[in-house]
Structures are given as C-alpha cells and as structure tokens.
C-alpha cells in the first residue's frame, strides 16, 4: 500500500535548497470526466480512494452538448494543469477524453471506464449499435426539444435502476435518476476526430452486465486500442465507478505507475 498523504488539486512545487530546480509532484493529477446521464458526483467513491493514496484529483464538468464542444471544454481545463495527467472517462466521456487528449504532452495515460473509445468518424450511437445487447434506446424518455434545434435525452426514472445502475442500491439509483444530466442527441451522434488512444497508452475497465454499451463492444474497443490492461468486473453494471470504486481506483493507479 502506498504511503498516505494529503495534497491539494495542484501540488505546490518545492525549491531545492541551493539550486533553482524544483521537485516534481509525487503523483500525476487524475482528471475524471463523467458521461451522459451522470455528473461529477458519480466519481465520489473513486475520488476518496485516490486522495487517500495522495493523488490530486479533479472531476471535470462535461457539458454534454456536442462532442467537439465538450472536448474543447476539457482541453481548456487540461491547459491549466502543467503537470502529468491521467485522464479518465466514463461512457460518452471516453469519446471526449480521446479527442481532448490528442496532441497534449501532459496527458500520460487514458483510462476508459465502461467508455467509448471511437476512431475517426465513429459516433457513440454507432458503436453502441455495432454489437447486440444495448437496451438504452427503449429506456429513454420522450426527447426534450431544444430552442436552437436538437433534443435533450434522459433515461426514464422508472427504468433508470435496471438500465443504468442495476448493481447499486435502489435508493441510490433513485437519486441518480433524479439528478441525471441530459445529453443531446447531437453529442451521441457526432463523429469522432483522430483518437488519442493511438498515441497515448490506454487502460480499460467495464462490467459484464452493462446494458448501455454492450460488453462485446467494450471488449472490441479495448483490443483495438491495444489496452495495457483490461479489467472485466463480474456482475457490474454501466457504473462500476459507483458499485466498485476500489477496482476503478486501482486501475487508475496502475495507469499512473506504469507510464
């Protein structure tokens, strides 16, 4: 077990006596990006594990409006972090991290948590439908039209538990359903740009009971990205960071240590 200590979001550099050199932070910053129908609080359990081990952590807000716009928002956040970063995405957030990290020298590793890892021209919707098993379409509520065009999408409250988070307590799933953030249909259908996983090492973790993204699709994407390590959590739903936070934190730490 790593020695426990507390750090801030951005660890302060320490001047070495008698020189102008500065010590580097002991741990890379972990940036967590939530996906559709979720928010930053979905990472709370993972954050507790990581901060206990001395990792600075930032849960970035994902606008869920368009893939290029969401990637630009994350890119701006990454610009404020000069030190090494382990970038983690859940679900649609995987598409976002792969676009935002392209060409970023401070991103040392990508971790995909039940997440899309598209290549150029692929969308989340297309990847999800490439293999059988997703029941998300039938679990969506009536689309909410937006003033500028397009629609916001929500998961029906009465289907949220079984569809999105079957392995978390019903009361918790109810709270998640009530606080879910909508994603636009545009964001899910936007084609991806050149992916960062072709040049940045990647790790994958997902559950074998995922009803949003078929496990077969997740296995395909992990293999295509030459995942350094792929963990399949038995019995886990689409949200292993909530139901199995220790396992997710562990693979993030592995990515931090091995790169």
From TrEMBL:
<feature type="signal peptide">
    <location>
        <begin position="1"/>
        <end position="23"/>
    </location>
</feature>
<dbReference type="InterPro" id="IPR052897">
    <property type="entry name" value="Sec-Metab_Biosynth_Hydrolase"/>
</dbReference>
<dbReference type="GO" id="GO:0016787">
    <property type="term" value="F:hydrolase activity"/>
</dbReference>
<protein>
    <submittedName>
        <fullName>Alpha/beta hydrolase</fullName>
    </submittedName>
</protein>
<feature type="domain" description="AB hydrolase-1">
    <location>
        <begin position="30"/>
        <end position="250"/>
    </location>
</feature>
<keyword id="KW-0378">Hydrolase</keyword>
<keyword id="KW-0732">Signal</keyword>
<dbReference type="InterPro" id="IPR029058">
    <property type="entry name" value="AB_hydrolase_fold"/>
</dbReference>
<dbReference type="InterPro" id="IPR000073">
    <property type="entry name" value="AB_hydrolase_1"/>
</dbReference>
<dbReference type="Pfam" id="PF12697">
    <property type="entry name" value="Abhydrolase_6"/>
</dbReference>
């Amino acid at each position: 077990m790593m020695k426990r200590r507390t750090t801030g979001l951005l660890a302060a550099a320490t001047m070495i006596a008698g020189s102008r050199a500065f010590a580097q932070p002991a741990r890379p910053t972990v940036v967590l990006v939530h996906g559709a129908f979720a928010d930053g609080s979905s990472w709370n359990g993972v954050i507790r594990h990581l901060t206990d081990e001395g990792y600075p952590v930032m849960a970035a807000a994902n606008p869920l409006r368009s893939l290029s716009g969401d990637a630009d928002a994350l890119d701006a956040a990454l610009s404020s972090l000069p030190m090494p970063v382990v970038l983690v995405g859940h679900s649609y957030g995987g598409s976002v991290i792969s676009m935002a990290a392209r060409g970023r020298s401070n991103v040392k590793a990508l971790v995909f948590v039940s997440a899309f890892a598209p290549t150029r021209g692929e969308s989340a919707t297309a990847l999800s439908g490439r293999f059988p098993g997703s029941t998300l379409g039938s679990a969506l509520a009536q689309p909410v039209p937006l003033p500028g065009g397009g629609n916001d999408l929500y998961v029906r409250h009465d289907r949220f538990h079984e569809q999105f988070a079957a392995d978390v307590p019903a009361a918790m799933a109810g709270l998640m359903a009530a606080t879910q953030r909508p994603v636009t249909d545009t964001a899910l259908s936007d084609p991806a740009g050149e992916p960062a996983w072709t040049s940045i090492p990647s790790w994958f973790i997902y559950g074998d009971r995922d009803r949003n993204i078929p496990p077969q699709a997740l296995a395909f994407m992990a293999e295509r990205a030459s995942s350094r390590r792929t963990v399949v959590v038995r019995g886990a739903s689409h949200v292993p960071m909530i139901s199995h936070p220790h396992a997710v934190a562990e693979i993030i730490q592995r990515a931090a240590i091995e790169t």
